[in-house]
Structure formats: structure tokens, C-alpha cells
Amino acid sequence: MSHYSEFTDIEKDIIETVRKYISKEVKPKAQELELSKTFPEQMLAAMKEMGLFGLAIPEEYGGFQLRLPVFAAVMETISAGWTTLAAFINSHCTVAYAIAKHGTEEQKQKYLPLMATGEHRGALCLTEPGAGSDLQSITTVAADRDGDYEINGTKIFVTNGARATILLTLARTHLDPETNRPRLSLFLVEKAFDGVTVESEFHKMAYGQVDTVEILLTKVKAPASSLLGGTKGLGMRHLLDALEVGRIAIASSAVGLAAAAMAEAKRYASERSSFGVSIDKHQAVQLRMAEMATKLVAARLLTAEAARAKESGQRADMLSGMAKLFASETAKEVCEDALRIHGGYGYINEFAVERLYREAPLYIVGEGTNDIQKIVIARRIIDDSEVDVLGLPQ
User: Fold this and answer.
1) Do residues 218 and 163 lie in contact, with contact meaning Cβ atoms separated by under 8 Å?
2) How many structural domains does the chain have?
3) Angle at 306 (CA atoms; ends 304, 309), nearest 5 degrees
4) 391 in a domain, yes or no?
5) pLDDT tens-digit readout, 247-283
6) pTM of the entire structure?
7) At what angle do helices 83-102 and 68-81 cross, to 10 degrees?
8) Are 155 and 217 within 8 A, CB to CB?
9) Residue 211 falls within a domain, yes or no?
């Protein structure tokens, strides 16, 4: 808890409550549930009871609205127990943040209280078959129909899309009169709207309990009140703001995954013997563990700095991109090193490290691929918009 020293006693109590639950009820059962492909209904119910679906929702709407550094710490704590549970919350909190920050008062009153309890669950409908990270190239259209909208398009890789009730959907609404380029808007599309269809589910190398689906939007009649914020053309501005929070959450989850792998490696190295001593007495293992630990702490600190900057109102697309990039690469490397320390046992699914190793690649390609993060970081360096972060000499 030393790295939470700047938190209030109440914030520390929240983190500790989550940590105790994860340690007692989640971590001992995660491997069995994952292998049996059993959906963790009881854990989901407990998460709702603890209010974890309200982490990004203001108190007046029934949530906690944790400060971003505290939110990041909670996400890390959950992920260190089982990243699947963190995946249930991540996109939901991004949707909740977008509504709380950019929604109309009517939208906040309608959705946030039920999102705080988990009765409503949010998912992001952004990616399309012909437009991956290039969201400006999406073809989903929301056409004006006498003040309301008709939405047509296809969205893929929608995390929690089968169980979500609210889909934050990016669509083209009109052409910019000056540039003649499409302007994008965000819509709060309810799953219950006519024309919303879950078409198929993707089968992944990990996260089998987290549904990832394709969603078809066919002549979906969306009322004018479903336009986030009530003003057309602000979709990308609102989305990029929300995705900074999402990337901090993803980075925190990756740190939690790396911490879990480090813990497994440390425990195994102290118990496994070779040449008459535990293998953590061998210098080769010690050097590997030293690098793992250093990367883990560096990733945690960078993620905390990104959360602090975002909370303070600073521009944080570079820092959040750095955090996501570094934390996800760290998770991959630490999980691989943990597998190496386990030797052949690391490849057997009776050991948790095998699952952790399969989970790590998601963080490299999800929430904006790491190559996209590098491009964002490079652009901020070149245009000097966040140059102060680098502390370069004048």
C-alpha cells in the first residue's frame, strides 16, 4: 500500500475492501472458472453489491466517482486477481464517464443511476470491419429523420456487447460545410431499440467469459435524445476524452496482470529446487526477477502519473498513450519471464501463469493498438503540445 500514500483514508479503505474480496473470493477460484469456462455470476453480483460499476459515476447519480488515481489503483487490484473481472468494468466505466462528462442532464438522470448499480451495462461500439484504429473512416451512418435518427452499420469487437444494455455508438451524421468531410457523433443506443442485433461472438485465446461480439445496426430508430450531449459533430472530441480514461484503465489492468505474474514467479522460485537450493538463489533467476520488478514498478508509476495529469485537467493523450503502451508491453514481458521461471510447468494449465501468458496480448492490441499509441506520442512530441511532460532542456 506504500504507493497509495497520497490517498485519503476513505480511498485506502475502498482499495483495501476490494483487495480483500479479490484475495479471498476471486484469486483462488479464477483458474478453475477459466478452465471450465464458467461464467462468474456470483462474482459479478458481488461487484454490483460493492458498487464497482459506479466507479466513474458521480455521487449524485449513485456512484463513487473515484479520483482517477484511485480508480486506476482499484482497476489494478481487480486485475491482479483476475483480469476478466476488470474487463467487465473497463468499457462500462468509459461509457459512464462519457455520459457523466458530456451527456445532457436528461441522459445523466436516465442512465447513470442504473449504470451505478450494474442494472444497465455499457459497451463501446466503435470498430468496424473496414476501419480498425482509423475511426475517421467508419461507415456507420446516423441519418436525420424528422429530428430523430436512423442508424445503419456494423460494429465488431464489441466487448461485453452481448450482455450490455447501452451501446455508445460512433456514427457519421453530416458533412462539415468547410471541409466537406464527414463529422462524427456519439449515440446512446439501447440494446432494446428495434434493429439492434448481436450477430456473432468471437472466440478468443483468453477471456472466454468476456463476450466479444459483432453488432448489426439495421434501420435503428434512435430518438433525438440519444445523441450524446445533444449537439451533432462532437463525437470524436467526446470520444477521445473518454478513451484517455479507458487507456488509463487498460494500463492499470495490465499492471495488475504483471503484478500477478510477478507474484506467481516469486512464489514458484522460492519453492522449486534445483542443484540443492531453491531456484531464487540462482543468479540467472535473480537477474530475471530484478528486471521484472523494475518494469512493474515503472509501469505502475507511469500509469499513476497519467491518471494524475488527466485528473488535473491537463492534456493527457500522450501520457495516457505512454502508460497504455509501456504497461501493456511490460505485462507481456513479465508474463513471459514468469513462464520462463516456471520452466515446463509454465506451459501447463494447472498453473496460473499459463493463463496469464495468454491474457497478456490483449493489452497490446486492445484500446488502440500499441503502434497507434506510438503515433499519438510522436505527434505530441512534434507539435510540442505536451512537450513539458518530457522535461527537455531549453
Assistant:
1) no
2) 3
3) 110
4) no
5) 999 999 999 999 999 999 999 999 999 999 999 999 9
6) 0.94
7) 160
8) yes
9) yes
Q: Left if phi > 0, otherwise alpha if psi is -120 to 50, otherwise beta: which for 288? A: alpha
d(CA 5, CA 7): 5
pLDDT digits 0-9 by tens, 14-26: 999 999 999 999 9
Q: Say whether both 263 and 246 belong to one domain.
A: yes
HSE-up of residue 31 (Cα within 13 Å, Cβ side): 14
Residues 182, 186, 191: CA angle, nearest 5 degrees: 130
Give me the CATH number covering residue 131. 2.40.110.10
Element (H, E) at 278: strand 277-278
What is the extent of the structural domain holding 241? 237-384
Q: Tell which residue, 86, 89, 109, has the closest CA to residue 99.
A: 109
Best CA proximity match to 115, nearest among 167, 72, 74, 151: 167
Task: With beta carbons less than 8 A apart as the criterion, state whether 4 and 15 touch.
Answer: yes
Half-sphere exposure of 353 (CA within 13 A, CB side): 25
Output the nine-digit C-alpha cell for 323: 502508460
Task: Name the residues annotated as catalytic.
Answer: 367
Element (H, E) at 100: helix 83-102
Coil, helix or strand at residue 40: coil
Burial level of 152, CB count in 10 A (0-12/13-18/19+)? middle
